[in-house]
Design brief:
single chain, 329 residues, Jelly Rolls, 2 domains, 10 helices
C-alpha cells in the first residue's frame, strides 16, 4: 500500500509513503506521524493517525501560490472528506471528471487505485480526511436506500465514485467532532477507542445528511457565507469573550440582519445558542478531563461570576458543574 506524489516543476518524486499493515490487520496498535510543508510550497503540517481499518489525516497550510501535483495510489479506500478551508480539486481517469471541493464542504468518496493530478488553491488550507477499509465501511452502510445501494455496488465493482453527486455543508455537530479528533490528547489504546467512537459518530452524521439529499446550495451569497463562517471561527477561538451581534457582524464586515439570517440558515441555530452550547461543551470537557476548579473554568468560558456559569451549566445539562463527574461514574 503506497501513495506517491510528484511535482514536475522540481522533477521527480516528492513523497513516497507506504501505509502499515495495521490499516488492514489488527495488532492493537496505533501509529502516528506528522509531515511538514515547507517553502517553496508554503508552511503547514499534515498529521496522520492509523489503526485497524482506519486512517485519519488532517492538517493546515498557508500556501505561497496555487499548487499542482501528480499522484498515484495502489490501493482502494473509502474516504470521508472534509474541506474546512480553501479549494482543492482532483482529476483522475477513474472518475473521468474533476472532483472539486470548496470551503465548508464534505462528501464520501470511493477510490480504487487512483492516479492523476490534484490542485490546491487558497492562502489558507485546512482539511480532514478519514480513509476506511471498504469492507469495514460497508458494515455501516444502510441497505434501505437506493443512493447507498448504488455506492455499495460501485465498491463491489471497484468503480471509483462519490456517494452523492453534490457536496454537502459541514454541520455544527460535524465541526464539533472534527475539532475533538484534531485536538484529542489521549494516548495509546485510549486514544484508539476514543477516535473509533468519533469516526463512527461522524460517519453517522454524514450518512444521515446525505440520505436527506439536500445539496450544499443555499440562498446566501458566497461573500456573505464566508463572513458567517468567519464569525463561527471567531466564536470557537474566543470563548472567553462576550460580544453583541452588532460587534460580531462589524468584525467580519457585514450587518446584523445578514449575520442573524445566514447563521440560522447555515447552522440551524442562532449565533448565541451556538456560542452558549460550545462554551458549555468546552466547560464540560474541562470538568471531566482536567484539574481546573469551577472558578477557573468559569473565567475561561467568559463568565465573570461563577454562579452565573453554574446556572447556565445546569440549564444545559440539568446538573451543577461540581456534580458532573458523578454522572459519568
Amino acid at each position: 500500500m503506497t501513495l506517491r506524489i510528484y511535482d514536475d516543476k522540481i522533477g521527480g518524486r516528492l513523497v513516497e509513503k507506504p501505509y502499515p499493515n495495521a490499516y488492514f490487520m489488527d495488532d492493537g496498535d496505533i501509529k502516528e506521524c506528522i509531515t511538514y510543508l515547507k517553502p517553496p510550497y508554503g508552511n503547514g503540517y499534515y498529521h496522520e493517525i492509523c489503526f485497524e481499518n482506519v486512517h485519519i489525516g488532517f492538517g493546515n497550510a498557508s500556501l505561497e501560490n496555487k499548487i499542482l501535483l501528480y499522484f498515484e495510489a495502489d490501493f482502494e479506500s473509502v474516504e470521508m472528506h472534509f474541506s474546512l478551508k480553501g479549494k482543492s480539486s482532483a482529476l483522475s481517469e477513474n472518475f473521468g471528471y474533476k472532483v472539486c471541493f470548496d470551503s465548508y464542504q464534505h462528501n464520501i468518496i470511493y477510490a480504487h487505485q487512483m492516479c492523476g493530478q490534484m490542485e490546491f488553491d487558497g492562502q489558507e488550507m485546512q482539511i480532514l480526511e478519514i480513509n476506511l477499509a471498504p469492507d469495514f465501511f460497508k458494515r455501516f452502510l444502510p441497505e434501505d436506500s437506493e443512493l447507498f445501494n448504488i455506492f455499495r455496488s460501485s465498491i463491489d465493482k471497484q468503480h471509483s465514485a462519490l456517494i452523492h453527486p453534490d457536496h454537502h455543508k459541514i454541520s455544527l455537530e460535524m465541526y464539533q467532532i472534527l475539532n475533538d479528533i484534531i485536538h484529542c490528547d489521549r494516548k495509546g489504546v485510549f486514544k484508539r477507542i476514543y477516535l473509533e467512537a468519533k469516526v463512527a459518530e461522524l460517519l453517522l452524521l454524514q450518512l444521515e445528511q446525505l440520505f436527506k439529499s439536500k445539496s450544499s446550495k443555499s440562498s446566501i451569497l458566497k461573500k456573505d457565507e464566508e463572513k458567517i463562517y468567519a464569525v463561527r471561527d471567531f466564536i470557537v477561538n474566543n470563548l472567553h469573550q462576550n460580544c453583541s451581534l452588532i460587534d460580531l457582524a462589524h468584525r467580519v464586515g457585514t450587518n446584523e440582519f445578514t449575520l442573524k439570517k445566514g447563521f440560522k440558515e447555515l447552522f440551524g441555530t442562532t449565533v448565541f445558542n451556538f456560542w452558549n452550547d460550545i462554551k458549555m461543551e468546552h466547560a464540560k470537557k474541562m470538568l471531566l478531563e482536567g484539574d481546573l476548579n469551577i472558578n477557573e473554568i468559569s473565567e475561561i468560558v467568559g463568565y465573570k461570576n461563577p454562579r452565573h456559569f453554574s446556572a447556565a451549566f445546569k440549564r444545559k445539562y440539568n446538573v451543577i458543574p461540581s456534580k458532573i463527574k458523578n454522572e459519568f461514574i
